[in-house]
Amino acid sequence: MVKALTERKVLLTDCADAQGLIAGITGVCFKHKLNIIKNSEFVDNFQGRFFMRTELEGVFNDDILMEDLQQVLPANNHMSLISARRKRIVILVTKEAHCLGDLLMKNFYGALNVDIAAVVGNYDNLQELTEKFDIPFHHVSHEGLDRHQHEQALLEVIDSYQADYLVLAKFMRILTPEFVERYPNRIINIHHSFLPAFIGANPYRQAWERGVKIIGATAHFVNNCLDEGPIIKQDVIHVDHSYSALEMAKAGRDVEKSVLSRALALVINDQVVVHGNKTIVF
Amino acid sequence: MVKALTERKVLLTDCADAQGLIAGITGVCFKHKLNIIKNSEFVDNFQGRFFMRTELEGVFNDDILMEDLQQVLPANNHMSLISARRKRIVILVTKEAHCLGDLLMKNFYGALNVDIAAVVGNYDNLQELTEKFDIPFHHVSHEGLDRHQHEQALLEVIDSYQADYLVLAKFMRILTPEFVERYPNRIINIHHSFLPAFIGANPYRQAWERGVKIIGATAHFVNNCLDEGPIIKQDVIHVDHSYSALEMAKAGRDVEKSVLSRALALVINDQVVVHGNKTIVF
Amino acid sequence: MVKALTERKVLLTDCADAQGLIAGITGVCFKHKLNIIKNSEFVDNFQGRFFMRTELEGVFNDDILMEDLQQVLPANNHMSLISARRKRIVILVTKEAHCLGDLLMKNFYGALNVDIAAVVGNYDNLQELTEKFDIPFHHVSHEGLDRHQHEQALLEVIDSYQADYLVLAKFMRILTPEFVERYPNRIINIHHSFLPAFIGANPYRQAWERGVKIIGATAHFVNNCLDEGPIIKQDVIHVDHSYSALEMAKAGRDVEKSVLSRALALVINDQVVVHGNKTIVF
Amino acid sequence: MVKALTERKVLLTDCADAQGLIAGITGVCFKHKLNIIKNSEFVDNFQGRFFMRTELEGVFNDDILMEDLQQVLPANNHMSLISARRKRIVILVTKEAHCLGDLLMKNFYGALNVDIAAVVGNYDNLQELTEKFDIPFHHVSHEGLDRHQHEQALLEVIDSYQADYLVLAKFMRILTPEFVERYPNRIINIHHSFLPAFIGANPYRQAWERGVKIIGATAHFVNNCLDEGPIIKQDVIHVDHSYSALEMAKAGRDVEKSVLSRALALVINDQVVVHGNKTIVF
Question: For the ACT domain, which residue ranges apply (chains A, B, C, D) (predicted)?
């Protein structure tokens, strides 16, 4: 006789707010003999919307569980039951090594619970670094191609890896809506400023010119507007008058890589729910 | 006919961990038609202990609610149902004004949801400041009294105010176990160091001598051991070689008052559960 | 015979960069038997500009000292020799108490080395608080007056106090260029956002709508453009999805008052040099 | 005719305080036609000691410069004139990869201005990682050796590299005074706690047991007492009740590597002066 397998899954609930939701959902889980490892909820009172993340352990019968849950939830709910498996990512880069290097290194010593399926660059200078870690690197140059052609070439490579998420680790090309729609809320970008300050190009130069005393970085999902998607994580460091624009950029790199890897850790751990142009981070 | 009053209460649960606790508790709340405003739980896997804070709104029948909850909980549970009313505090001081001043001022403009019933000092130099805010000040000098006599004198004043919490806002006298037992987990102290570094007297001097690059402050409940109770909140600031011990103390005052008032806000909002020598801060 | 008085003064130098400036200036100070307590310099290599702050102690003969310094400096230099005396400020407020309250309280217990000459409000609700501290409050309502008339009424009160600096402690009126020119680089404002993000009205609402994970405050000198003067100090706090716009504003108040009082401390200690639209903070 | 070479050097002065020191030293530099790029000074008023760091550019005649400087300095001064060349380090490790990995990666993409001459480990599990970056790895096991023998074996390898600094990147062996004396103020250690809290073994376990709300890391020079040398850099992160000791350790690793690499950057840039058991960080 086969012993049923104990698994861990995350149940994400997103529905209209109503009385009894927590009792209803956790009651169903209890009926299914699932142990709740961790439960977090948030009600957006402004929009009357209920969100819950429930980390479950036990023997899952997914179909019956989802059916039972539908009985206790309002209509038009979004539920997802996500296996706590390692996620697959493809990393896109241009020339800068610090974010890619940090992800490769953290992954190497087991601090990022992710499979890096491949790295794709529109330049080839990060190939050597990537291959040190036995990860395939694809050089997909944009030269001689229009934006559409370049994205087609990228997608041919990327799609083949069936990644859960694309990570733009200082990928300095603007993606078209067509590209973004292929990976809805599945593209994570690191922007080298504390958004919404200094949107667009050369934010450290802008920051230096404005004489700010703090610089930052923002990790966000990419949607169709430049620098406009739901923010996952932000952090800052203090600077002073003695920093040149170049030194701000150098200091900023440490924040960028730290914010990107922490944002990625939240996402792959199924702690981030997108809600309109915002995120709920459980 | 009288319309039943809608109230807000916080239900704190502390019991042995078991399956179905969230479902059970929230199910009872639902049955009582209580709306869950906010629910947070924590399981201490190391000790197999379950903690939950449930913010409820509705018409309460306390006795029946507690009875019903007992049906779904393991034996030896601790439950408390706390009305979301303003707490009363008595503040104890010695000579330094910054923590007291901050509490008085924040309370004046409505940023601390608390009633300051009285201020008690073993010196009288903070009387003028206290009375600016129309709060009674009691000068209970320790001079000529032994520790026991002084504490008796203090308790005579303090007990009369029936405070929920005593706040030691730089009260520089060590309390005896007898005193502390009168207010178990109800005395909040601000210690002028990042505990457990620099326990005891003159921590800024110690910090300066050690050449640390960071100094901090710790708000904690007082138990019978000096500087040893459950920590509620800590924070730090960066310093450098140019700070004298005096300048460290001056810079530290800002952290002290900020940590104390944030810790107090958590406590009076019923967000802090004491668990052995630690706190769970929901 | 009269013994000459030992004083402390700060010498601020701002001139074209050249070789030998530190040697030249400190050599003159040495010749004058002035002891250098602290010396800080900064060269803006981008603009070829030299800045130095020299804290001096001794018996000053100001005229001869300045003459001697001119011998070692390039033409078109700006030098100022500032007595280390307590500065006088006038605080302007509208309705919010937290920044004013913090300044009043810190000043009361000696943590701000400043004379608060008066508080001026376009509402009268902060009169009671101000007068607790025996500081004159002037209610100069804007009602029924056009902007020019209101500013005239304000200036009549303010000018009479001969303040070194005006501190806008949540003064919610936009000042005209004519007003600002009366106090060049002498008006300090606290802006309730991390500039340049969320310029203009209702920044916490904007921050909430954008779903940011960090909010901040900016203290800056006021020049002719709204929210555009040289930044003195900035700080931030982390927030999350659970904050409403109102809760962000509440949390932001603590940063606002902290940033304003730290910026003011730098300014009155003659540590801040304005250089174009930026500051050098020694 | 040979054109003299323009170089950059750092002049570090450490002497009894006296009037005219800045003027004297910078006057000599001016006489030598050396341009001062950056000048920072600090007076320890408690001990009457003067420290200055002067970054110079020009054509150096070291012997005459040092002779001339002796003319303007009190007796018993310590002066060093350090060429702004890349420093050589040897990294010692045990089993943990995060600090080593961070140094290797940052160095690879040019964010650490240092030559990593070799990595020495008492286990061999970090050999593969080190060699990815074409840096020699030496496995010097402690097994079967007493402390003295092991240190001899280490020194044989280390000494051959003529390193400026040894970096203990989670090297979990206690060094003897004999070893430490070979590299006075030249061994940099990362301690996995906010010293002086949690001295000794298993600090994260200690931190968890104490229920602290902040954990940290400390980079310091190693002297003869365990965890006792001059502190170079410290930083912290906030934790809460939900962290197990293991999760604290995991979160702490990010602080450890960040603190170590920032401390190393300060040291190799000749910004750190050791003064008794403290550092002055210019």
Answer: 10-88
Position B1 scores a pLDDT of: 55
pLDDT tens digits along A47-75: 999 999 999 999 999 999 999 999 999 99
Q: Which residue in chain D is spatially nearest to A253 when comparing CA positions?
A: D111
**Architecture in CATH for domain A87-281:** 3-Layer(aba) Sandwich (3.40)
Is residue B44 within 8 A of residue B275, CB to CB? The reply is yes
Q: Do B105 and C109 touch (CB under 8 A)?
A: no
Laid out side by side, the sheet with B137-139 consists of B137-139, B114-121, B87-93, B165-168, B187-191, B214-221, B231-238
- The fold for domain C89-281 equals Rossmann fold (3.40.50)
**Cα A203 from chain centre:** 22
d(CA A209, CA B105) in angstroms, rounded, equals: 38
> Which chain B residues contact residue A38 at CB under 8 A?
41, 43
- Is residue C226 very low, low, confident or very high in pLDDT (cuts 50, 70, 90)? low
> Each residue of D102-127: b (16+ CB within 10 Å) or e?
bbbbbbbbebbebbbbbbbbbbeebb
- A227 annotated active-site: yes
Residue D191 CB neighbour total at 10 angstroms: 28
Give A233→chain D minimum CA distance, Å: 16
Residues of D with CB under 8 A from a CB of A: 97-98, 101-102, 104-106, 108-109, 111, 129, 132-133, 250, 253-254, 258
Residue D278 is nearest to which of B46, B211, B280, comparing CB atoms? B211
- Phi, psi dihedrals of residue D208, rounded to the nearest 5°: -65, -45
- Chain A: give the shortest CA distance to residue C227, in Å: 11
Domain boundaries defined on chain C: 7-83, 89-281
Tokens of C124: 């009268």
Report CB contact under 8 Å: D254, A258.
yes
CA B107 – CA B118 distance, rounded (Å): 13
CB C278 within 8 A of CB C18: no
Reported pTM: 0.95
Q: Is B175 left (phi over 0), alpha (psi -120 to 50) or beta?
A: beta
Which is the catalytic residue, given B17, B115, B227, B254? B227
Looking at CATH, the fold of the domain delimited by C7-83 is given as Alpha-Beta Plaits (3.30.70)
Residue B25 contacts residue B53 (beta carbons within 8 Å) = no
Q: Which residues of D are less than 8 Å from B198 in CB distance?
A: 196
Q: Of A101, A109, A253, which has the smallest distance from its Cβ to D97's Cβ?
A: A109
Q: Which of A17, A44, A227, A235 is catalytic?
A: A227
Residue bearing the bigger pLDDT, B240 or B226: B240
For residues C180 and C158, is the Cβ–Cβ distance under 8 A? no
